[in-house]
Design brief:
By secondary structure, this protein is an alpha+beta fold. 37% of the residues lie in helices and 23% in strands. It contains twelve helices and 15 strands. The structure holds adenosine-5'-diphosphate and magnesium ion. Adenosine-5'-diphosphate binds at residues 142, 172, 174, 179-181, 184, 210-213, 217, 238, 242-243, 290, 292, 303-304.
Length: 354
């Protein structure tokens, strides 16, 4: 029998999606086959402290009792080095996890990890940058305008004028660099724009205003490095007016249809667009790509990419793979293989450069 792989799960984190990360990490922990993996658990508190814990859990008080260690050599307050592993799996959603920051730390440490690298993670997290790159690759994105906060505070009338001229109602106003629907407002009258922009700027110094699409929300799981593969698409049917934070995490009344009921032609187009978006945004390992299918025109738009999608037992990413013939435990093994593969390729490139 080959030697077991030591895998360190990193979960919790400083973002608003802390609790979702805990649920995701519990599901990942449960589905890692023990004959293949020796699992270590690293919990990051909301405040950013790193702790060694027995296993992921949703009991935050218990997790916080774990001994702290420092992953940063220049922050040696608790001078203990944390658990060393063959590969690291950040199961962190949102800023300081999905945005390239922890990926940068792991790159500096020279260790293999699961998922996208620094560029792919940073691009995926930033809605304005992601849309610009997708558009540059000829991929369909919803018409939008982006505004830095200074432009809004210095000339609100000009900003409002530009939006009215370019975009019809309804509109969606979003902070560029966040997830979980935090800070997002649907605007149905132009009079509602100033409050919506103020809300978005509470979360980021860059906001985007998008044309609201009336239609269906579809999601696709992509897996791979150089030649990524796509799952079957699924559909999200929000319970509320749109898929907002409460709908995502509190009410749980959203319906998921897996796989989505769609004509084969549209399924094929979604899969092609999903793989193209994954490549355009320099993702690797995994990503969930989300779409709108416009009512009436049947036009597809790439809405966003999530480089660390939800991994709970009921999350789209693993569910779509299960429906496409790849069960959760096998999916995790594949992600680890891809993490090692990416590390080997990067190392080879770095060595060639020397
Ligand atoms: N342009 C749009 N047209 C219609 N609905 C939208 C639009 N943008 C966002 N939404 C709704 O808001 C939700 C959250 O927006 P999204 O861009 O996916 O941000 P997040 O990263 O927070 O998930 C979507 O799932 C969808 O229900
Ligand atoms: Mg979304």
């Amino acid at each position: 029998m080959s030697k077991k792989i030591t895998l360190a799960l990193i979960f919790g984190g400083r973002s608003a999606e802390h609790e979702i990360s805990l649920i995701s990490a519990c599901a990942v922990h449960k589905n890692l086959v023990r004959s293949k993996f020796e699992v270590r658990s690293i919990y990051i508190t909301r405040g950013g402290l790193w702790k060694t814990v027995e296993a992921p859990s949703t009991d935050i008080e218990a997790l916080e009792r774990g001994p702290a260690f420092s992953f940063l050599p220049w922050n040696a307050a608790p001078p203990v080095l944390g658990p060393l592993a063959d590969i690291y799996f950040p199961v962190l959603h949102g800023p300081f996890g999905e945005d390239g920051t922890i990926q940068g730390l792991l790159e500096m440490a020279g260790v293999p990890y699961v998922g996208a690298g620094v560029t792919g993670s940073a691009l995926g997290m930033d809605k304005v940058l992601a849309k610009s790159v997708l558009r540059d690759h000829g991929l369909p994105v919803v018409p939008f305008k982006a505004f830095p906060e200074t432009e809004w505070t210095e000339g609100p009338a000009a900003v409002l004028r530009r939006i009215r001229r370019a975009l019809p109602l309804p509109l969606f106003v979003k902070p560029s660099n966040l997830g979980s629907s935090v800070g997002i407002t649907k605007v149905t009258t132009y009079a509602g724009l100033p409050a919506a922009l103020d809300t978005a700027f509470r979360y980021d110094a860059m906001a985007l205003v998008e044309k609201g699409i009336i239609g269906r929300e579809l999601e696709l799981s992509v897996l791979g490095n150089g030649s990524p593969e796509a799952s079957l698409p699924g559909e999200v049917i929000p319970f509320r007016d749109f898929y907002d934070y409460d709908d995502k995490y509190k009410d749980g009344k959203t319906r998921f249809v897996i796989p989505a009921a769609l004509p084969p032609r549209i399924v094929a187009r979604i899969r092609t667009l999903g793989v193209a978006a994954f490549k355009a945004l320099a993702a690797s390992g995994m990503a969930r790509v989300d779409f709108f299918l416009e009512k009436g025109t049947n036009r597809l738009y790439v809405n966003e990419i999530n480089t660390i999608p939800g991994f709970t037992e009921i999350s789209m990413y693993p569910k779509l793979w299960a429906a496409s013939g790849l069960p959760f435990p096998r999916l995790l093994e594949r992600l680890v293989e891809l993490g090692f593969e990416r590390h080997r390729n990067r190392k080879a490139c770095v060595e060639r450069e020397r």
